[in-house]
Amino acid sequence: MELSALHAFHFLRPWWLAGLLPLWGLIAWLSRRRRNDGGWTRLIDAELLSALRLAGGDGPAAVSPWPWLVLAWTVALVALAGPSWQQDVTTGYRAPAAWVLVLDLSPSMAAADLAPNRATRARYALDDLLGAAHDARVALIAFGDDAYTVAPLTDDVATVRALLPPLAPDIMPDSGDRLAPALQLAQRLLKQADARDERVIVLTDGFADPAAAFAAAQQLHAGGVSLSVVGVGTDGGAPLRGATGTFAQDLQGRTLMTRLDPAPLRQLAASGGGDYYDLSEVARLGAVLQAHGARADDATARRDIRIEHWRDAGVWLLPVLLLLAALLSRRGWL
């Protein structure tokens, strides 16, 4: 072994060496017991005891198993401790893209200006976007008055897709419409991604906290995350249904209408460094996301990420341990 290897020698799991302590205690006990002949010298004459040992096959020619047992124990513990003095270098892979899909499930998403309703059409759009997520990791967030993680970042797109059908405004525990908590939650999820292309895609018909939402979008953009917004709804709108399923009315008894206003949605996308898309443009958005992901993938490949880890040499002690076990299994040793 070279001098540099000696300097690099260490154990990957050194706590296994603590198992040598009971071994030393066993050796000390056996040594004392052998000196005392197990106490038989106090009961049997020395010459008679010697003759009995010869008759029982425990004579001078007999081989004691204890040194071999001690050696096997030591070899096993050293192997488990993981001796190492060399490093292996492997090529690492980092997912090039991470997307957080944010779905608005506020009460207005139950409006039927898009058949059968806005929430269902938004789920269809999410399904199309998931079809474009080939190598990207995807997370899904739903929001109303607060934000909830439906699926954390994962490359299992099929599982995320299977979670879409039950998503509807009536499953939300509140009836608010605050986007800022969802954007903040998306930022926390992306901190775990370590991806080169990080994106948040919001599907909404509007939000009730524009100041906080714009600030959260700017914070995302400052952290290198691009925010895209998909508007769900029509300019003509539809009657807004209340919690009981009936049409909501104002104080004058007039039916409340919910209409899509693209202006704040465009401002939100601009604050997040992204673009605004109409629901009919989801296919174009998917193509854009794929193109960015492909460029990020190429950049990752050019970067040639390499990971170094110490080689566990304990496996080379296994043949020695097997040989010792075979010797210890000899008939008459134990």
CATH class of the largest domain: Alpha Beta
Structural class: alpha/beta
Which superfamily, in CATH terms, is the homologous superfamily of the largest domain? von Willebrand factor, type A domain
Question: How many separate helices?
Answer: 11
What oligomeric state do the depicted chains represent? single chain
Helical content band: 40-55%
If you compute it from the alpha carbons, what radius of gyration comes out, rounded to the nearest whole angstrom? 35 Å
Overall 3D geometry?
elongated
Summarize the biggest pleated sheet.
6 strands, mixed
Tally of discrete structural domains: 2
Structural write-up:
This protein is of the alpha/beta class and 334 residues long. The chain folds into two domains: 3-88 and 311-328, no CATH class; 97-303, Rossmann fold, CATH 3.40.50.410. The chain is 40% helix and 17% strand. It has eleven helices and twelve strands. The strands form four sheets. The protein has a six-stranded mixed β-sheet with strand order 6-5-4-7-8-11, with helices on both faces. Strands 1-2 form a two-stranded antiparallel sheet. A two-stranded antiparallel ribbon has the order 3-12. Helix 8 links the parallel strand 7 and strand 8 (226-231). Helix 4 (66-81) runs antiparallel to helix 11 and helix 7 (180-190) runs parallel beside helix 8. It is elongated, with a radius of gyration of 35 Å. The two termini are 38 Å apart.
